[in-house]
Amino acid sequence: MLVAFSISPSSSDDTGGVSEAVAAAVRVVRESGLPNETTSMFTTIEGEWDEVMAVVKQAVDVVAATSPRVGLVLKADIRPGFTGELAAKVERVERALER
């Protein structure tokens, strides 16, 4: 399964930035060892349901440690029997664009 998620703390630094809190969440994802990718809006992680959701929970918990309120947006692509889709889905679209 693929899960794309975005975590947003309710509190920010003096400039309104949330990059430190977001970096802490991304660190959790990267240390999980699961395939992942971070873009400007979402982090996508690939794995089995329980392991992916455990990482998302840990990422939320890290942000919650510094903010009294946390927003979470999550989108999942649940497709049993498929792995490597983090890159494969994009590759299929790129091939289609070449036609």
UniProtKB/TrEMBL annotation:
Taxonomic superkingdom: Bacteria
Domain Thiamine-binding protein: 3-94
Pfam families: Thiamine_BP
Name of the molecule in the record: MTH1187 family thiamine-binding protein
Species this protein is from: Nocardioides daeguensis
